[in-house]
Amino acid sequence: MTEIASETGRDERTTTETRFGAARRFGPVLLGLAAAVPPLMMLREVLRSPQLHFYDYWWVLLDITHDDGSLRPWALFGFRNEHPFVLPSLLFWLSARFGHGLNQPLGLLIIAFGVGCVLLVRAMLPAHLNRWQRAGLVTATSTLVFNPHGIHNYVRSMSGASWILAMLLVLTALAAMQREHRFTAVGAGLLASISYGTSFAVWPALAVLARLRGERRRWVVAPVVIGVVVVAAWLVLRGPQGGGGSSPTDDPAQAMLAGLSMLGMIWTGTQPTAALLAGVAGIAVLALHARLDREQRRASAAWWALAVYAVGCAVMISGSRAAFGETAGLQSRYNSMTAALWIAVLVIVVAWPRRPGIRTAAVAGTVVATVALGAPMAQGVRDDAPNQQLLAVAARIGHPDAFADRFPAPDRLLPRLRALGHYPFSPEFTLGCGDGVEIGSRVNTATWRVPSLGSYREPRPDGRDVLLNVETDQVRGGARMLGGWAISGIERARCAAVLDAGGTVVGGGVIDLPRADAEAQTPGIEIGLGFQAVAPAGNTGPLRVAFRFPDGWWIRPLTENPQVAS
């Protein structure tokens, strides 16, 4: 019996050792593979995003093209809100000329830039880290680069074309200097400097890196000199520039709030106070780890340089954006600079710890907390998507009058888009209705049903009605803007289109909009009953708005006397 028990014990120990051995072998691999999850989640967001480009893209397109849509090459070297914008402008032109001006493909390229950032950080990690530490830091880096706080940069690709590209080039410069490829580092720094103005912070970062690595004095001084020349050239060439909003503040406290909250924004949902405290905490953690011996300084130089870059960005942003209010530092597009600081903090804390016991907690806590806290920011960006989709319809029918804050100078911009075959004048544009219901098509509505009651309500035997409710019918310039909610039984509308009296599709809209008030009146049905639509205001004859439901089409006429916006 003793021998049997002994054999059993040995077998159990062998099994346990085998399991721990497998965990040691494959655990780091699995942890490293988790780094693929954040970019895949962001990929899903991009593929759900509108195809129409956003905001600054249109201003740049106006600047860099002639009336016929052809390129004005020298205009690529202009400025946007005082920022050098050469490489983003080039990307915008390539998107317009060869990509039908679609937002999503450019968003995919920005995701590739983000992946490049993660791979560069992985290549720069200290050699003495073990497999678990390397895998954890790579996954944390991926989480920070593709954090929900930064969804703006990917879903609105025109933003990431400057911010994420700039970060990629800055990391390339730091990685090159770390490996003593000094001219490559300078070249990458120059490319970063013509991508966005915040990238000017790469030059002091390169000088710090060279100094901590013990480089010769000329390679410490050279980045500073180049940076001074770059900034001087920028000051001379930019000329008088227009920028939205207030003038930069002269209140130091307001500037500190903006800068520090930018550095800590990933640690809050929407509260600038929490973000400020997190930014202070990040800098404090770095200060606690500042006492290093000569070899440690050399090995950690790239990460201190990355932190200098992040702080430099915060200083520039605080000086120019603080007057926009207490939440000025909490903009989604600033996530890349925040990520730069916290990547540096995590690498330093893990590789040269003052308290080794907190390393795992620091990495895991950063991953979990920052992702969860980014939910409000991400939802805010998602909630804006229907406005952009409606703008696409308005632009397609030639009347984006109600979207002056999103679509500038339509009399100049629309001809360019038509000449380029740019979305929404490209084959990719659709109302999503099926049945051949597209702008300009003529459809037979003989089988489409009209509610029988004057209120456009159709009672059903099961007690659940068809309701086609148009609450807003307003003329704004050349556009007729419609809004309301629609339901058939327990089903929301799957599509909305506007037709003239002859059955020609002259407009369309977006559906699945939250309408809590309507949903409260009709318990037990699907959410997302709201719709918005747009049609030409000058159309002769009565218009009709039609909705596609799972059980077919329902249609209702519109008043011939819509309200005129004041």
Quickly list its features:
12 strands, two-stranded antiparallel ribbon, 10-stranded mixed sheet, alpha+beta, 566 residues
N-to-C span: 97 Å
Total beta strand runs: 12
Mean pLDDT: 87
As a percent range, the share of strand residues is 5-15%
In helices, the fraction of residues equals 40-55%
Principal-axis shape: elongated
Report low-confidence residues grouped into runs of 5 or more.
Answer: 242-246
Structural class: alpha+beta
Number of helices: 20
Rg estimate, integer Å: 28 Å
Reported for the largest beta sheet, the result is: 10 strands, mixed
Describe the structure.
This protein has 566 residues and is α+β, with helices and mostly antiparallel strands. It has helices spanning 2-33, 37-48, 56-64, 86-98, 103-124, 131-145, 151-155, 157-178, 182-193, 202-212, 217-237, 252-264, 272-288, 294-321, 335-351, 359-373, 375-383, 385-396, 410-420, 516-521, and strands at residues 79-80, 83-84, 457-458, 466-476, 479-488, 491-492, 495-499, 505-513, 530-536, 544-549, 552-557, 563-564. Strand 1 and strand 2 form a beta hairpin. The radius of gyration is 28 Å and the shape is elongated.
